[in-house]
Amino acid sequence: MDNYKKIIYKYYFSKRSGKSLPLSLGDLSGKRPFYKNIICQHFPHDKEVSVIDIGCGYGAFVNLMKELDYHSTLGIDASPEMIKVSKKLNIKDIHQKDIMTFLKNCDNESFEVVTAIDVIEHFSRQELFELLFQLNRIIKKGGRLITHQPNAEGVFGNAVLYGDYTHDLSFTRKSMDQILQANGFSDIESFEDKPLRYNFKGVIRRFFWSIFIRPIYLFLVAVEDGNIDRKSIFSKNFITVAFKK
User: Fold this and answer.
1) Which of 99, 119, 124, 184 has the fewest beta carbons under 10 Å from its own?
2) Domain positions in the chain
């Protein structure tokens, strides 16, 4: 029998409860505020930079990058189903590639920005260590890696970790700092995946998160640990940005 991940990835979205493949670009609007926030908050201002989105799915993030004039952008994903959808949606520069094989064939310092959104949790510890080594190798000096991953410190973090059978790992900001430093990255910073204030519902969610939910979590951790770490991250997922010196 094939590896279980290979079987699941073949129909990664169409055979998941509550998931459906997009039929038009309008169907990609759901994550648009999230992707736009990453670009606005964490991308370089120079729009001529070369960018690769690994594990890009059907290319929603790549499509938005290009829409916002980051044209030197491409995406790779191992799922033939995802690539087929990206072609139907006419999203450019999306390629079906095994991530590790692709990276090993890239020249040193090929890209200035690498994004890995909801990707690294799919690797084993050893595989992830090798992946980060390759990513550091292909990123130009001064370039950056941007990741988004499940938060093991979050109260509902297990819902993300175990919500997908192909997830192997969950992380904390400290474990991300540890593995990234070990692979040559520096100036590492992690950010809470807070509700975004892009509509009325988002404003209300952000209000309750900031005024009630986060302080309660912070209080509980303070009781357990005996001190307050205001850098603690409590959202289900979090974003990490790391640079190559």
Assistant:
1) 124
2) 4-199+233-244
d(CA 191, CA 37): 12
pLDDT in tens, the chain (245 residues): 468 888 888 878 777 766 777 888 888 888 999 999 999 999 999 999 999 999 999 999 999 999 999 999 999 999 998 899 999 999 999 999 999 999 999 999 999 999 999 999 999 999 999 999 999 999 999 999 999 999 999 888 889 999 999 999 999 999 999 999 999 999 999 999 999 999 999 999 999 999 999 999 999 888 988 888 888 899 999 999 999 98
| CB-based burial label for 186 (10 Å; 0-12, 13-18, 19+) | exposed
Q: Given the DSSP bridges, would you call strands 185-192 and 237-244 parallel, antiparallel or unpaired?
A: antiparallel
Question: Which two structure tokens, joined as six digits, stand for 58?
Answer: 């059907």
Q: What 8-state DSSP symbol labels residue 16?
A: S
Q: Are 58 and 85 in contact (CB under 8 A)?
A: yes
Tell me how far apart the alpha carbons of residues 139 and 130 are, in angstroms, rounded to a whole number. 15
Q: Write the CATH number of the domain with boundaries 4-199+233-244.
A: 3.40.50.150
Sign of the Cα pseudo-torsion (35, 39, 40, 41, in order): positive
Query: What is the residue type of 217?
Result: Y
